[in-house]
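Researcher: Quick test of sequence recovery. C-alpha cells follow.
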C-alpha cells in the first residue's frame, strides 16, 4: 500500500494527484496486481477530501482498465504493465527535480551541495 501525499499548493487538482500516485505506485512496484485499495469513503476520510474527488480518480482509472471495482468487495489493481510510459516517467522526474532544485536554490544551496547530499542519502540507505 502507498501513503498518499497531497500538495494543495501545487496547482494540480487533487483527483489528478491521487491518479498519479496510484499509477506511479503501480509502476514502482509499491502496488501489486490484485491488491485492494481503500474504499472511496476510507480514502476520502484519510486524505480529508470530498468523496467525489476520490470517486472521480477511481472512475478515471477504471476507464483506463487500471482499477476494477467489484460491488460489495472493493476496488482492486487489475493492470500493472504499461501504466506509466518512459516519456511520462522522465517528465515526472524532471518536474520533481525542477521543484526540488528551485526550493534548494532559494535557500542558497548549490547544485553540487544538493547532489552530494542526495548521494549521501543513497549511500546511507544501502
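Model:
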Amino acid at each position: 500500500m502507498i501513503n498518499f501525499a497531497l500538495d494543495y499548493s501545487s496547482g494540480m487538482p487533487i483527483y489528478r494527484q491521487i491518479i498519479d500516485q496510484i499509477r506511479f505506485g503501480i509502476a514502482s512496484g509499491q502496488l501489486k496486481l490484485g491488491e485492494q485499495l481503500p474504499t472511496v469513503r476510507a480514502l476520502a476520510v484519510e486524505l480529508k477530501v470530498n468523496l467525489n474527488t476520490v470517486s472521480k480518480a477511481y472512475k478515471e482509472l477504471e476507464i483506463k482498465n487500471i482499477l476494477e471495482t467489484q460491488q460489495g468487495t472493493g476496488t482492486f489493481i487489475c493492470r500493472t504493465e504499461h501504466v506509466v510510459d518512459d516519456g511520462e516517467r522522465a517528465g515526472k522526474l524532471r518536474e520533481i527535480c525542477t521543484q526540488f532544485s528551485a526550493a534548494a536554490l532559494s535557500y542558497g544551496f548549490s547544485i553540487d551541495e544538493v547532489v552530494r547530499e542526495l548521494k549521501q542519502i543513497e549511500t546511507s540507505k544501502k
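The chain has five helices and three strands.
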